[in-house]
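Postdoc handover notes: sequence design on the structure in folder B. Input tokens:
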């Protein structure tokens, strides 16, 4: 029986959310975000929220602002979560 986890938007979002170590997690979150594009997995508002949240917890404000701009450039509408 094959028990592989499908690498979809939901699993990437969960992995990004798990990168919440202060001062250490945001680079790994950005790597996962980049890997989504390489795997042709579509990012959504939850992906962007998770990535921005990880940056916020690490006080990587400039990176968080850049992600917000990238999100808007991709046509993903920000929400208030």
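Designed sequence:
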């Amino acid at each position: 029986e094959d028990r592989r986890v499908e690498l979809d938007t939901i699993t990437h979002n969960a992995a990004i959310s798990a990168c919440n170590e202060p001062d250490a997690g945001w680079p790994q979150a950005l790597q996962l975000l980049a890997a989504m594009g390489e795997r042709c997995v579509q990012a959504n508002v939850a992906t962007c929220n998770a990535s921005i949240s990880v940056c916020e917890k690490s006080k990587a404000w400039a990176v968080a602002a850049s992600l917000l701009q990238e999100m808007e450039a991709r046509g993903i509408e920000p929400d208030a979560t």
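Context for whoever picks this up: The chain is about 60% helix and 0% strand. Don't rerun without checking with the PI first.
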